[in-house]
Amino acid sequence: MVSGQDAQDSPESRRDITMTEAQILVVDDEVGMVTLLRNYLTREGYAVTTAPSAEVALQILEEHGIAVVLTDLHMPGMGGMELVREIHASRPETQVILLTRMLRRYRLPEE
Fold first, then answer.
1. Is residue 2 one of the residues assigned to a domain?
2. What CA–CA distance (Å, rounded) separates 31 from 29?
3. Number of folded domains in the chain?
């Protein structure tokens, strides 16, 4: 007898997510970095949306099914860490990757 969990995890019941279905949101105030990441990820087959700020990113997240957010740590207004907190509070299933050019070490807050 197969349990409900085993049936859900079987290869027949899993739907493979194609790269174009995996929406990636790139958030950065530097146009050059946004362009670089968008071009690379698009060439790799991902569907990419961009936002120039964390505030705009939150609006996009409300309207679109975003799987992954790549965000700069340092931006004017709301920074990357605050954006991460907002995303985890409202969309815990969304994966977030923090990017920074800064060489300082940062200690992430413990939950």
1. no
2. 6
3. 1
pTM of the model: 0.73
Burial class (CB in 10 A: 0-12, 13-18, 19+), 102: exposed
Domain extent at residue 25: 17-73+80-99
- Could you tell me if residue 5 is inside a domain? no
Closest CA to 109 of 89, 91, 82, 90: 82
The answer to whether 17 touches 45, Cβ cutoff 8 Å, is no
Q: Please give the full DSSP string across 32-68, using - where no structure is assigned.
A: HHHHHHHHHHHHTT-EEEEESSHHHHHHHHHHS--SE
Please name which of 71, 79, 64 lies closest in space to residue 98, comparing C-alpha atoms.
71
39-89 pLDDT tens trace: 999 999 999 999 999 999 999 999 998 999 999 998 999 999 999 999 999
**Which one, of 92, 97, 104, lies nearest residue 41 by Cα?**
97
Residue 106 lies in a domain: no
Domain CATH number, residue 27: 3.40.50.2300
